[in-house]
Amino acid sequence: MKRLLLLAGLAAFFQSASAQGYAGAIVALSNVGMDCLVPAVSCDRQARGGRIYVGTQLSEASRINLGVGAIDGIEVGYMKFGRARSAGTATSFIIADPADPGADPVPVAVPATATAQADALTVAVAAHFPVTDAFGLAARIGAAYVSSTVKWTKEGRSTGSRTSNEIRPYLGLGLEYNIPDLIKLVGTYDWTQYSVDGQKGSATLLGLGVEKAF
Length: 214
What we know:
Layout: H1 2-17, E1 21-32, E2 40-44, E3 46-57, E4 64-65, E5 70-80, E6 84-95, E7 105-130, E8 135-154, E9 157-179, E10 183-196, E11 199-213
Antiparallel strand pairs: 1-3, 1-11, 2-6, 3-5, 4-5, 5-7, 6-7, 7-8, 8-9, 9-10, 10-11
């Protein structure tokens, strides 16, 4: 909730500071790279996620011309990645004969799960590369403040969880189709990384959405 409030505050700032602000929302398929349990019964790294963002266009004097396009905006966003989940077995130890105080524990395989999920605040510069008057390409590069959590269960009971917050690189690529005086249709691919308690990997979004200037 604090992240969403911060994003709302930044949106209000952009709106008051620039007449060339914009905001967008993306519904996406997310993928959180995690290590599957060994042995694994199932391992699903894909889930639903999304991204919301606000930005401001730079003035003509501040833009960086790239020949076929320009770095022309600054954006902040919030990405929500779905939960990756692996189900399998883990080793637990039981006393085969509780009446025998000297009995050695016996290893047995029991059901276990591991889950990983993440969200991130991003700050990036945006570049646009027009192809036609209506259609263009976009790229974003910056940093992400990633919060990630890994949880484990054994026999349906929690055996621990770990959370990490850290700065990671952020990259976004997109296709844009502008409907004049209405909205912009966008398709995006967003990438960052997470790492927590030895579990690490890429976290990505592949989605479709809309963008509106204000």
